[in-house]
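Researcher: Structure for this, please.
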Amino acid sequence: MLKKACLALICSIALVSVTACSGGGAEIRSEITTTTKGQQLLDLKKAFDAGAMSRDEYERERLKVINAK
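Model: Predicted structure, token format:
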């Protein structure tokens, strides 16, 4: 009886210690871009031509796309 109680206690402690290690709330971010630079530039031009952005906005965003790695 004592052996079973000790075994149950050891298993409980082991289970609690394993479940307590859940990552500490670390935030993991991942960004995947499948749009090519060419497509981004075409989309920007289309938005500019449609009047959705000013020339300054268009040039600023165009340069961001061109200079992005």
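Researcher: Any notable elements?
Model: The CA atoms of residues 12 and 58 lie 62 Å apart. Residues 34-69 form one domain.
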